Amino acid sequence: MLNEDTICAISTPIGEGGIGIVRISGNDAIPIAARIFFSKKKKDLKSVPTHTIHYGIIKDAKTGDEIDEALVTIMRAPNTYTKEDVVEINCHGGVLPLKRLLGLVLKNGARLAEPGEFTKRAFLNGRIDLSQAEAVIDIINSKTEDSLRLAVGQISGILSKRIMAVREELLSIIASLEASIDFVDEDIEFISKSEIGERIKRIIKELECLIDSADEGRIYKEGIATAIIGKPNVGKSSLLNALLKEERAIVTPIPGTTRDVIEEWVNIKGMPLRILDTAGIRHTEDIVEMEGVRRSREALKNADLVLLLIDKSTTLNDEDKKLMGEVKEKRGIVVLNKADLPSKVKEGEIKDFLPNKAIASISALNGDGIDGLRSAISNLILQNKVTSGERPIITNLRHKLAIERARTSLENLQASLKDEMSEEFLAVDLRGALNALGEITGETATEDILEKIFQEFCIGK
Length: 461
Prior knowledge:
461 residues, alpha/beta, Gyrase A, domain 2, Rossmann fold, six-stranded mixed beta sheet, 45% helix
């Protein structure tokens, strides 16, 4: 354990609520709590059994001021989140009682925890590895049931086990190679280069499977930036409301009502979509609307997915055709809106301009075709990918880059085998792959990596 001091933080969101929690972790966690907690049954927290809850009053012993009623949970090392002594004080939720309680804990010898420091201590004390620590953030930030399920799989160690298995295989090869180097005069071949080649080929294939899963993992973790694009008054805001199943955007028959990009999260068959309802794209002299059009084009440029909305009750005009040209190279779906009105646009006309784009016909006003559009979005995003809780999926860019570095080292090894390089050169490439994979689970992670990861946590976790 690198830190001997005792840390504390508010672990529940600031604001009014039924319960607020201050968490304390470290060698002095229980003595500090004992100095400010007065049990209704006269119990001494320093002698109570582990994993027990006690009712009493939080009070400043020096001034006699009572702060709140509380339930105090005592958890003794090593069977705690941090593998240190941990105390959680549950008081009434609210800014003032939590602030006073935290101040009293600090006054009695604890210091304020840094972002993610509780989880960092769990990692440093060996309770979880680094990839499991990162999964804590993914659980907190989950937008859908599927993204939560993936994060729970990560924290249970599904990725760690796979990475550790690959590292064990690499260590086995390294050990045989180094034995060959150490006993070169004995004329003993501990492992043949052809066997190394076959084993490395299998490892590369496994690493590539993990890399290939990263796009799917990013979808579930970060969501898909989806821009609703179209000329004014085609129903973009109505479509956003239909997907959200609530009246989020203002809808009027007046073109140009939406002046800015509206952003909302939508769950499409388990996938989180960050939907951007944009201002209608057209030529305008209105300064405010011009800025809205500029932002719409920026959203189009950066979107992972585009929903090009066209009013099928009016004939295609130059503005529609220009927009079709702009989305031609983007992943997207053409959405023909106002299907409840007589149609003046045929799908064949759309196919002439965008032969490779899926087409969905809807009525954003009454909800017809929205379920079909949801299915089209899901099919386009995932295509042939199948998410399974039984296989690890890369959801973290840091992990993907580390695996790619490991693959590169092993590809260099294959080239060295082909060039009949000596065992010493092979061992260098193997250790490069080993170290890259170790960054994922934390065995070879530098202090800079750890600092960057845990700075993303909230204080109190």
